[in-house]
Write a structure and sequence with these properties.
Layout lengths: L1 H9 L1 H7 L1 H19 L4 H10 L3 H18 L2 E6 L20 H13 L6 E6 L5 H13 L4 E5 L2 E2 L2 H8 L2 E4 L4 E2 L5 E2 L2 E2 H10 L8 H24 L12 H5 L12 H6 L4 E2 L4 H15 L4 H25 L1
Parallel strand pairs: 1-2, 2-3, 3-5, 4-6, 5-9
Antiparallel strand pairs: 7-8
């Protein structure tokens, strides 16, 4: 506003000749321009809010469009994006992957296998984990791919998701993203917890022998799991000195649900960047919206019946007109 006043003072007589109305118009015009320039930028936020309100079919289209955009710009894209609240959803909803499963592993392995030699693969991981063996199999496929693999973790990649990330030569984490421990979970308990129970069992008949039997099996699986994680970890994540990152993450010293941020995994020797492309966030958010807006089975059945009725109606009209 001070700039306007200075202009008026320096051009007072000229403005006087133009007339008072002209002065008012000039002041109003300049003031309007200044207001436009000072308006806060909310375009990116507005797009996010709009995306959160998309209906199921709109969200599916959005994912397809964004994925195509990524592939046109960068190359092959695979995403492992799960419903992290699957245990809270109604049984009538159309199912969505809630964890790393065998079927999903076969699909992702097939996608990796189909990539040409020397082709870089990009994988978005958003998961709390899942079965160990499918995670190992995906990691194995990544390690055996003849080409670079880059994993993006926009939000969270726990347990099996971390195993997949370790197999890639490049990992990009979002500003608040978390990875997690990869210690053995057997029978719903971590190996370290089962081991502690077995020690407590000494001379205590109140503890079930089933605990001891579980520990025996867990002992075998623990050795296998540690070797698998270590063998699948990319050499880019192996420090020249100090403990192997796979050993630290599988030592059982942390809670299996503990999230590890960029600085923590970086300190362990992981080759990771604290940056995630905006397009990766957009794809992840859109896929999450697909999951959250998915219709009920009853709604799909009703829609199918309605479409079937319309087709029969149209067929009847054509038959009558012919």
């Amino acid at each position: 506003m001070s700039a306007i006043m200075e202009y008026i003072q320096s051009h007072f007589y000229q403005l006087l000749l133009w007339g008072v109305p002209s002065i008012v118009v000039i002041v109003a015009a300049v003031w309007g321009i200044m207001r436009i320039r000072s308006k806060p930028k909310t375009e990116k936020y507005d797009k996010f809010v709009k995306g959160q309100g998309l209906e199921y079919e709109e969200a599916v289209t959005r994912v397809e469009e964004l994925t195509a955009k990524f592939r046109d710009k960068v190359g092959i894209l695979i995403h492992i994006i799960h419903d992290l609240d699957s245990n809270k959803e109604g049984a009538d909803l159309v199912s969505a992957p809630g964890s790393i499963s065998y079927q999903e592993a076969f699909e992702k392995i097939g996608a990796i296998r189909s990539a040409e030699k020397g082709t870089k693969i990009h994988i978005i991981v958003h998961t709390l984990g899942g079965y160990a063996l499918p995670s190992f199999m995906i990691a194995d496929a990544i390690r055996k791919h003849d080409g670079d693999v880059q994993v993006y973790v926009p939000y969270v990649a726990m347990s099996g998701g971390t195993i997949i990330a370790l197999a890639a030569g490049e990992v990009c984490m979002g500003k608040v993203a978390r990875l997690g421990p990869v210690d053995t979970v057997y029978g719903g308990y971590t190996y370290s917890t089962l081991k502690a129970l077995s020690i407590e069992k000494g001379g205590n008949d109140k503890l079930s022998d089933e605990v001891l039997l579980t520990v025996i099996e867990a002992d075998k699986y623990e050795a296998y799991s540690k070797n698998e994680v270590k063998s699948f970890t990319h050499e880019n994540h192996m420090p020249k000195d100090g403990a192997h990152i796979a050993e630290e993450l599988s030592a059982g010293k942390m809670s299996h649900n503990q999230g590890l941020d960029f600085s923590q995994v970086k300190a362990m020797g992981m080759n990771v960047k604290d940056s995630c492309p905006e397009l990766v966030y957009q794809i992840t958010d859109a896929q999450i919206r697909v999951i959250k807006s998915r219709p009920t089975k009853a709604a799909i059945l009703a829609k199918a019946k309605d479409q079937s009725f319309k087709r029969r109606n149209e067929r009847s009209k054509r038959e009558r007109s012919s």
